[in-house]
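Input (Aldo-keto reductase family 1 member C4):
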Amino acid sequence: MNSEHQYVQLSDGHFIPRLGFGTYKLKEVPNSKTVEATKIAIEAGFRHIDCAYVYQVEEEVGLAVRSKIEDGTVKREDIFYTSKLWSTFHHPNLVQSCLERSLKKLRFDYVDLYLIHFPIAMKPGEELYPKDENGKIIYDSLDLCATWEAMEKCKDAGLAKSIGVSNFNRRQLEMILNKPGLKYKPVCNQVECHVYHNQRKLLDFCKSKDIVLVAYGALGTQRYKEWVDQNSPVLLDDPVLGALAKKHKRSPALIALRYQLQRGVVVLAQSLKENEIKENIQVFDFELTEEDMKVLDGLNRNFRYVAMQSMSDHPNYPFADEY
Ligand SMILES: NC(=O)c1ccc[n+]([C@@H]2O[C@H](COP(=O)([O-])OP(=O)(O)OC[C@H]3O[C@@H](n4cnc5c(N)ncnc54)[C@H](OP(=O)(O)O)[C@@H]3O)[C@@H](O)[C@H]2O)c1
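Output:
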């Protein structure tokens, strides 16, 4: 493996590994699984770990990373760790406290990347999803640009090496990019991206602004019951992915991951299974042809697994526009 090909330079000069290990897990799975899987991922060669305050596994991820540092497998600087600001902490006075809570759980001094997780602010408090008596989410009316300025302060304080956003559409990215007095632009936008929703237009826009697109759900998501329609098609069962897998003697999962790398997308892959984790790192060992890439482009149908319909009444709901 050529390590040069495994990193992309961000607009602020830091480098992000092209393949990341996803750590979101379903509530019913015990947290101890996260410790185990994260250790396996680091041993297998993953150097980029994607997590978030709201996933509630930062303690476990921190434990796994520190144990791999202690046994000499890696140094802290070899690991690229991403955390995300949760929506109940968007108020500029709260932004740094969310990051500090994450750092405390991780027992880290800094994160490599800190993202605004979602462009919708919710009422501050300990509830992750504050709801009214009718079960509707209670929002907070805040200017995303003010939240961004607080993110910039986290970078200046050395608590986050790089800062970016997640689930932003073009309009929201432009709002930050055009903010008067912008100090740092977002280095990346992490969004749902896979062969059924390849984000072609958003990707082109991001590339034109030197913003890296990071793909989540590249393997079709974990089909979490709260967010994903259980009747939606299973991505890895797609016959075209299956045929290309056969042609390249790889799995459909590897074809789906490789597709993203070859179009300049940084890709996340989640799994708690040792065999899958070890397989996913093999994405650097083969190449798709131009023709394969065209065939995979042809699978796009602008289909989102995670639509967050319950928030579609909010003016900042990011998934209403075409991109
Ligand atoms: N920014 C955001 O709002 C946001 C939203 C969602 C996710 N994310 C991030 O993105 C990460 C990835 O997304 P995701 O968790 O939805 O899942 P994903 O990466 O799309 O993976 C979905 C499922 O694919 C299966 N899989 C993995 N490797 C495989 C292999 N080699 N062969 C066959 N099946 C394989 C696993 O299921 P089985 O174990 O059952 O086989 C896994 O649960 C998350 O963990 C999180 O870090 C961010």
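The first strand starts at residue 7 and ends at 9.
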